[in-house]
Amino acid sequence: MYPNLLMKRASLTPDRVALRFNEQEWTFARLAEEAIEFAEKLHTKGMEKGMRIAILASSNPKLIVVMHACMQLGCELVLLNERLSEEELNYQLADSAPDYLVVDDYNKRSLSFSNKYSFDEIENVGRSFFEVEKDWTKERTITIMYTSGTTGRPKGVRQSLENHVMNATGSALNLGVHPNDCWLCTMPLFHISGFSILMRSVYYGMTINLHTKFDAEAAIKEILSGTVTRMSAVAVMLERMLTVLESKGLSFPNTFQSVIVGGGPVPLNYLERAIERNIPVLQTYGMTETASQTTTLASEDALRKLGSAGKPLFFADVRIDGNEEIGEICIKGPHVTKGYVGAAESTNPLVDGWLHTGDMGYMDEEGYLFVVDRRSDLIISGGENIYPAEVEQALVKHPAVKEAGVTGKLDDKWGRVPVAFVVLKGETSEEELRTFMKKQLAPYKQPVDYYFVDQLPRNGSNKLLRRELFNYIKNT
Amino acid sequence: MYPNLLMKRASLTPDRVALRFNEQEWTFARLAEEAIEFAEKLHTKGMEKGMRIAILASSNPKLIVVMHACMQLGCELVLLNERLSEEELNYQLADSAPDYLVVDDYNKRSLSFSNKYSFDEIENVGRSFFEVEKDWTKERTITIMYTSGTTGRPKGVRQSLENHVMNATGSALNLGVHPNDCWLCTMPLFHISGFSILMRSVYYGMTINLHTKFDAEAAIKEILSGTVTRMSAVAVMLERMLTVLESKGLSFPNTFQSVIVGGGPVPLNYLERAIERNIPVLQTYGMTETASQTTTLASEDALRKLGSAGKPLFFADVRIDGNEEIGEICIKGPHVTKGYVGAAESTNPLVDGWLHTGDMGYMDEEGYLFVVDRRSDLIISGGENIYPAEVEQALVKHPAVKEAGVTGKLDDKWGRVPVAFVVLKGETSEEELRTFMKKQLAPYKQPVDYYFVDQLPRNGSNKLLRRELFNYIKNT
Fold it and tell me: How many CB atoms lie within 10 A of CB A134?
């Protein structure tokens, strides 16, 4: 058993600030009080212990209260990604079969699910008492999140209390815990990158500064003001902050501790520019199935091991499958999901106790993990492996290139060949890029086509969706 | 399963300093290497996984290596208190029935145990390989320590890996973890107050500065030099440091984080003087059966809740038994021992899942624990309860009193009456003290006898042994 996270935290440090949003502030005591109040209203509407509740909402303080309310009631949360299409959402609702759906605003979507309430409808009913559990079982499912799913239908991943707690413990032992820490949360709360910040907050007694969504200017303003010490990001967010800082000649203050950058490899070029701007970037390797981080670079290694995602955190174990230097990354530990819901329920995510991620990487002689690529994105061209990330990294080295996405297209001769999608920030031409790239990469890795686009397809947490790049090809 | 603590730590941060002793320094990599080397020598001598090894030695780096070596081999450690009499040690050896006894120096004691080796005898043999376990079970017994035992024979308490890890986790969430933390260890390593620092060191990746024993001048010198940030102590050690600081007009530097003071209530007078000397004192309530801390005051409450031992740490739960405000302190959590070895093996330390400590205390309306006294020390006089600690606190308020110990003596009329043992630091008389005390306490709490002594009886961790005070009475 573990203690009821929010109640224990509210009893330990009731007056510490749990949440800041614009000019508003919630202490842990107030957050606990509002969570119980909302839970009693959910209870009035029929929700109770053991039920499954799907939530579709934007990141704001009310969503945090609603999430905690559902946890207090003893319900499982299905966290829906509000950037999905209605078809995708309806699939997840059908697959996870929640007892209720709770949404912040009906008008955003028309979903084919009958047992639903809006936040306002619940807010307006009376409270009905329920017994708050003092302790929670470790095995309890806290959240269900559908993975981005690179092949086939997305799967609903169960994240248990133990998954979240052990993940947060491992992260604490790596990053340290300071009573004055404050985490800037610009990641969506329905995604593990955002939700894990919420878990750390109640577990550590740490303040969250919440932004509804990522805005580079707003994030930088917050960081420069000295109010926050940590932040989670993906590579593209880092790049956007770098561009702003560079244009203004600004750097991060020394009080800021680290940006934890996950969601795929970070181009070395970004890491080098980050050093110039005094941004302590710690690469991490995490995913929905591991309730966030599995490896994260330690601060002391940030410069020496540039490009690495670090070592496995205290309770985590990683091995590389196969006989070659680069192989599939496999993960073990108490932070790894025990399984799925819905159609995939009978699928065991583990093979001999190890999660086979489908991601490719290697460990250097000192045990640092380098994530090379997502296996499903691998382009096999004439028997040679081409890692899209490598080609993308080469492209963004060009001063006119802001972002790049690379994928494979079918080719009669080679099987697949790489194709590049480029967002520009300066003047260049296809010809100039081809010349530039020839200096960077072997001939078989050269993109055969270049598409100049305004933006790249990204998921709710700004991770590049390479398989979506195909849609561009189909449409040309 | 948890990872093998030392091996995981050495793989995560091999170059961080694990241990400093005088001018010597051990990184985690070196400590792991020396532990394995010594373990292979123990193995040569016949020790192997599943065995029980008793250790009798002074606090020094070699003892740390030996302790880690035994853990690496997969053995249980019986940690013997070197300040005990030979009779007491022989009892503990007979009761715990270890497979081997390992001592730093034969000449110190003549123990009736045949299967024994000195550190040197082991050092001088060759190494024989054994398979180092990558993971350890949570239930595994790491250490066995005999409790000071206020009544009857001392009991050998099993401390499991989970006990130690969860205790260290709860402490980390309260105190915070900083990569630059360094804990000054002047407590004996065979006692939970010292051994728990060793566990935190490998778990957090934190440096220990080791002193063979507590010396107020040496501790203050170390703290003033800025090399350490934390320290564990008991009340009398705090008093000795205060006296030195006051005589020299010195205060602790701001870089120092906290002195964790356990082993019984701390007189308010000491706490107030500590504030004057910029010593951040955090009272804690812990014991052998809970692998160290159960409650510890948080830094932010240090001044507001002076005299309290704080709130139950994240994974710990505390309740007060009985119907009165002051009752027996009961403890629950993953840090609580699962049981004893030897004669007490069949005794379940828990009643309905709660450890009944025999200690008396209360919780205020905000949930802060105040430890009033050890129940077994309670003096019941004419039906009234007298808590020795309360009388002692009153005594040390007098400017000439350095330390005080109070216990009960048999009395025909009242059952028991309090008797005071006083160590002076200035000029005073029995008459003056009596007059002083009448202003402080109710008539029935007044000591009937005063004994002026040079020192008070204390155990290996400097905790006052009130039952030993009786010996003074017998001898007068």
Answer: 11
Q: Does A470 touch chain B (CB under 8 A)?
A: no
Percent of chain A with pLDDT over 70: 97
Task: List residues bridging with B143 in a β-sheet.
Answer: B77, B159
B203–A173 C-beta distance less than 8 A: yes
C-alpha A120, offset from chain centre: 28
Q: Do B300 and A203 touch (CB under 8 A)?
A: no
Full set of structural domains in chain B with CATH:
2-136 (3.40.50.980), 164-376 (3.40.50.12780), 378-474 (3.30.300.30)
Give the pLDDT confidence score for residue A374 in this predicted structure.
65
Identify whether the C-beta of residue A212 lies closer than 8 Å to the C-beta of residue A59. Answer: yes
Tens of pLDDT along B201-248? 999 999 999 999 999 999 999 999 999 999 999 888 999 999 999 999
B179–A contact, CB cutoff 8 A: yes
Return the residue in B5, B171, B314, B368 with the most chain A beta carbons within 10 A, the one to mutate for interface testing. Answer: B314
Give the span between the Cα atoms of A5 and B242, in whole angstroms: 39
Coil, helix or strand at residue B148: coil
Specify the 3-state DSSP secondary structure of B233: strand
Instruction: Check if A137 contacts B (Cβ < 8 Å).
Output: no
Instruction: Check if the beta carbon of residue B231 is closer than 8 Å to that of residue B186.
Output: yes
Tens-digit pLDDT profile for residues A251-280 = 999 999 999 998 777 888 899 999 999 999
Q: What counts of helices (H) and strands (E) characterise chain B?
A: 13, 28
Instruction: Please classify residue B425 by burial: count the beta carbons closer than 10 Å to its beta carbon, then call 0-12 exposed, 13-18 middle and 19+ buried.
Output: middle
Does B3 lie at the interface with A, CB-CB under 8 angstroms? yes
Half-sphere exposure of A41 (CA within 13 A, CB side): 21
Which chain B residues have a beta carbon less than 8 Å from that of A173? 172, 177, 203-205
Which amino acid appears at position A138 of this protein? K
Decide if the complex's ipTM is over 0.95: no
Q: Which residues of A are less than 8 Å from B367 in CB distance?
A: 11
Strand ranges for B263-353 from DSSP E: 281-287, 292-296, 311-312, 317-321, 327-332, 340-341, 350-351
Closest CA to B26 of B75, B76, B62, B56: B62
Nearest-CA neighbor of B48 among B72, B79, B68? B72
Q: Which of B224, B207, B360, B361 is nearest to B279 (CA)?
A: B224
CA–CA dist B138, B143 (Å, integer): 13
Within A139-297, strands assigned E span: 141-146, 156-160, 182-185, 207-210, 230-234, 258-262, 281-287, 292-296
CB B212 within 8 A of CB B22: no
Task: Tell me how far apart the alpha carbons of residues A26 and A18 are, in angstroms, rounded to a whole number.
Answer: 6
| Element holding A131 (H helix, E strand) | none
3-state helix, strand, coil in chain B (%, to 5): 35, 30, 35
Alpha helices in B136-285 (DSSP H): 161-175, 192-204, 216-224, 235-248, 268-276
Question: In degrees to the nearest 10, what's the CA dihedral of A81, A85, A91, A94?
Answer: 70
d(CA B425, CA B403): 9
